[in-house]
Amino acid sequence: MSNDSAPPPLLEMKGISKSFPGVRALDNVDLTLHEGEVLALLGENGAGKSTLIKILAGAHIPDSGHIYIDGEKVRMESPAAAQQAGVGIIYQEFNLVPALTARENIFLGQHSMFSLTNRSQERAAATELFHRIGIEVSTEALCRDLTVAQQQIVEIAKALSQQARIVVMDEPSAALTPREVEGLAAVIKELKDQGIGVIYISHRLDEVEAFADRITVLRDGKHVGNQTIDEVTRDQMIEMMVGRSIENEFPKAASKAGEVILEAVGLHRLPAVKGVSLTLSKGEILGVAGLVGAGRTETARLLFGADKLDSGEIRLHGEKVEIKSPRQAIKHGICLLTEDRKSQGLILGQTVQENFGLANLSDFSARGFVSRKREGSAFGSYIDQLKIKVTGGSQIAETLSGGNQQKVVLAKWLQQNAEVVIFDEPTRGIDVGAKYEIYLLMNELAAQGKAILMISSELPEVLGMSDRILVMHEGRIAGEIMDPASATQEDVMKLATGSTGEVAVEV
Amino acid sequence: MKLPQDFSLFRDYGMVLVLVLLCGMITWATWEEQHPSDASAGVALANGLYDLKGEELHVAIMARQTKSDDEFVKAIEDQIAERGSSVKAVIRVRNPRDARIELEKLGVSNTRINAIATHNFCFSTWGVLKQATLDGLASSHKSFKDIRPYKPKSRMGSAFLSAENLIAILNQNAPVAIMAIGMTLVIITAGIDLSVGSLMALSALISAVTLRSWFGDADASALGIITAFLLGILVCTACGVFVGLMVTWFQIPPFVVTLALMMVARGLSFILAGGADPVDIQATGAELLYSGTILGVPNQIALMLCLFVIAHVVMSHTALGRYIYAVGGNEQAARLSGVPVFWVIIIVYAICGASAGLAGVMDASHFTSGRPKAGEFFELQVIAAVVVGGTSLLGGEGKILGTFIGAMILGVIQNGLNMQGVDSYTANVVYGALILVAVLVDQLKRKLLN
Fold first, then answer.
1. Residue A361 sits in the same domain as residue A500
2. Residues B318, A304: C-beta atoms closer than 8 Å
3. Average confidence (pLDDT) over A235-243
């Protein structure tokens, strides 16, 4: 893309260093981005990606190093300065006001306080932006009514409306369905064609391979490598990120399914679940695939007693059980690792030990008094066993990385010694190294004879880790894949989109 | 002293610092010469006089006809007797004129007197005790030869920092502090209870009215009084349960539920009272809850301290406490971790209602009447105490002992303003501003620590 007479790159960050008390977050990091290029910024959580992006966004001031745009030195002293310089950032958690329309969100903050707004002009401008992106979103729809993918488009439109020439996307696909990811690919291509430079951050390497022109890898705050995408294999990318080679991304151990533990018959809860039946056996990992909205999470919540059944029954060891609350589910030996750890899995403001103890207080109580000491020593053993990176039991849960948060939730349920473990998107937002550890743990649990239900939107993960796969479509089981090893992503997608002739299993 | 690692008084209870500062300021502002006139001052004066004159001591005591002077006079008499001598005369009068008349009488009766024991009030305000006047008396009555007045030693000190005053602060603020316990739990679950002030009145009225109409009015037995009080507390607890149900089952914001209950309970109190006038409690013994003591500690203070200790232990060492924090921190996550959220919410509002009920019967005992206007605007004071104590209105965090400190900060501010003779309008302005300053100091401290 560059030759000798080429203009200076769109963006250059040179020798960026940044320290926080006790941590050297970035150490002499370089990054270059050209016009019309997609650069994937790779690295495990804690590698310094977000710090680097925050420096670009003007949210942090680097200790040393400079930023050049079109070869000219710029100072990103505030988010406003970064915006002025043409940097648009689309964070994983969107910054949209749910009660405002798409149009209002796009132009939010661009008017001075007392100026009048011109609706029809704005509407035309918004439509034009959506047109540029290539996806139409209703300009007058409230943002809370939009899908995650549509909200993302609104965020991109917002960045473009501020004349952004550099667009940073932080895990843009994390909450998208496979079909929506395809849409995103098209959007990114549009942006490229318009000469916009895109910095793409994702843990999903297949997307990186598909979208990116080049990769820059960070590890422990240091710049590890810079490669064009054609020069590098997936395994090499992983090796650069984690600093060691991981032989198999999905370390599926052979497991042997035993007797049936959990049986669900005709679970109904409208509108999401319309007759789901499944069996789950000792020692197996049952993958549940499907598009977002297929009713997978809702089914898991029914099994866990988090929502009330309209009809249907749940049997444990062949006997019908009434599960009316998570508390009862836990007593029956069922536990659920929710897809959204931050809002449902953890109490972010409390310590990791308190989070761990919350479901297990009876284990550490004598005559009604909770022994912090016993709780602490139990948690301590999980810190070692699960290799949780914490300073101690009194660290606040919010300050942990995604992978470590997931491990804390896992420790909570391991202490319960539950028979049935339901993982809902167990590796969402978790980096490669921690993912691998979680897969190993799932194997270990299966080997111990626990029954594992794993809901995942990442097809390679479902195919790589499951003994058996159920595919859901519109609230029903659309089909079952008995031998994931020989199945392809297309097989799953056919079932998930309801595009096969197979009849949905109904009871 | 080595503290456990995760305990730091100033980190967990930063408001202690504010309280200490406030006490220091008020002490400084009220620092002046103190003239003791209590029993111990009497004893010291008696000893001093005997040591000075020995067998030559012929002492008359002069004091007012007040209850506190009774103790002073008795202490001097007893101590002189203890030393083997006796008080020759005791003059208890209402005003200087009478004092002079009594002294004349004493002179006429020819009783030998060479010392007059009194305290600063009489000494400095009654002309009769001026040396010139006494010399005049001595010259006309031989028995008054060399007569001189003596008073207890004065010292520098603060009226604020006296044990008496500090106990009064604790006692006066006990009802608000007790309600603040319940409020802390509610606020930790990210709720609010605006009804506590009205429930306080309702409880007082229910006690007073049932005592009058069911338990025999003036003839009520101890059991009757206790039953009436318990009934008041029970009704308030039931109100709390009701609030909890509305909040959990019907998902009505607690602000709205308790705002409604606040009006209903206040209205019911007036209806029960049949107007704005208090319903008197004739039964003897009903006042004991307020005026009695346990091991020398006033009942209200003992009760308050016990409840704070219990609440602290529950919140920091039991599963229920953990659950309450968890529900406030993240209700979803708590439920999915098996926390019985429904019961936790019901329990905290029930406890809050019960604490308001208890404060209500304490008020009834204090005034020996059920006052329909009891606890007006107390809900705001209670919330202020909780917030000043460092509990977040967003829920999930807060400390019971912090609330105690918060309640005491408010009490100390009020007391200090009283002592300075600030009028009540100005006091309100200062009170409000100081609440803000107290919370601001805490916030600044947090920022500095991070």
1. no
2. no
3. 81
For range B149-172, the mean pLDDT: 85
For residue B428, the model assigns a pLDDT of: 84
Domain that holds residue B66: 39-155
**Which residue in B has a C-alpha nearest to residue A330's C-alpha?**
B338
Which of A306, A336, A369 lies at the smallest CB-CB distance from B318? Answer: A369
Q: Output the pLDDT for position A148.
A: 82
Q: Is the pLDDT of residue A501 over 50?
A: no
How confident is residue A411, by pLDDT bands cut at 50, 70 and 90? very high
Is position A441 within any domain? no
Q: What is the CATH number of the domain that holds B133?
A: 3.40.50.2300
Number of domains in chain A: 3
The whole-angstrom distance between A361's CA and the closest CA on chain B is 6
Q: How confident is the model at residue A265 (pLDDT cuts 50, 70, 90)?
A: very high
Which chain A residues are within 8 Å of B326, Cβ to Cβ? Answer: 347, 350, 354, 358
Chain B positions touching A307 (Cβ under 8 A) are none
Domain boundary among B120, B136, B155: B155
Does A325 contact B319 at a Cβ distance shorter than 8 Å?
no
Average pLDDT, chain B: 87
Poorest-pLDDT segment among A296-300, A434-438, A459-463, B32-36: B32-36
**Total count of domains within chain B:** 2
Q: Alpha helix locations (H) across A71-177?
A: 79-84, 102-106, 119-133, 148-161
Say whether both A181 and A45 belong to one domain: yes
pLDDT at B128: 72
Contacts of A325 in chain B (CB under 8 A): 335, 338, 340
Q: How many CB pairs under 8 A join A and B?
A: 75
Q: Which residue of B has its CA nearest to A394?
A: B6
What is the pLDDT averaged over residues A395-410?
86
Q: Which two tokens stand for residue A441?
A: 């743990």
What pLDDT does A499 receive?
64
B325 and A350 within 8 Å at the Cβ level: the answer is yes
Cβ contact, residue pair A327, B338, below 8 Å: yes
Smallest Cβ distance to B334: which of A349, A358, A362?
Answer: A358
Gap between the Cα atoms of A473 and A498, Å rounded: 6
ipTM above 0.95, yes or no: no
B329 to A349: CB separation less than 8 angstroms, yes or no: yes
CATH code, domain carrying A307: 3.40.50.300
> Smallest Cα–Cα separation from A455: which of A441, A446, A465?
A465
Closest by CA to B148, choosing from B179, B178, B121, B123, is B123
Same domain, A63 and A153: yes
For β-strands A285-290 and A334-337, DSSP reports them as unpaired
Give me the domain span that covers residue A125.
11-242
Decide which of A242, A271, A293 is a domain's last residue. A242
Is B5's pLDDT higher than 70?
Answer: no
CA distance A314 to A453: 15
Asked whether the beta carbons of residue A370 and residue B334 sit closer than 8 angstroms, the reply is no
Give CA A123 to chain center in angstroms: 32
Q: Which residues of A touch B (CB under 8 A)?
A: 304, 306, 325-327, 329-331, 336, 338, 343-350, 354, 357-359, 361-362, 365, 368-370, 394, 412
Q: Which residues contact B428 (CB under 8 A, 6 or more apart)?
A: none
Task: Judge if A79 and A204 occupy the same domain.
Answer: yes
Interface test with A, best of B188, B318, B336 (most A CBs within 10 A): B336
CB of B117 within 8 A of CB of B98? no
Tell me if A369 and B332 make a contact (CB, 8 A cut-off).
no
What is the rounded distance in angstroms from the CA atom of residue A55 to the CA atom of residue A41?
A: 14
CB B285 within 8 A of CB B223: no
Beta strands in B66-184 (DSSP E): 87-93, 115-117, 148-150, 155-158
In a domain, B212, yes or no: yes
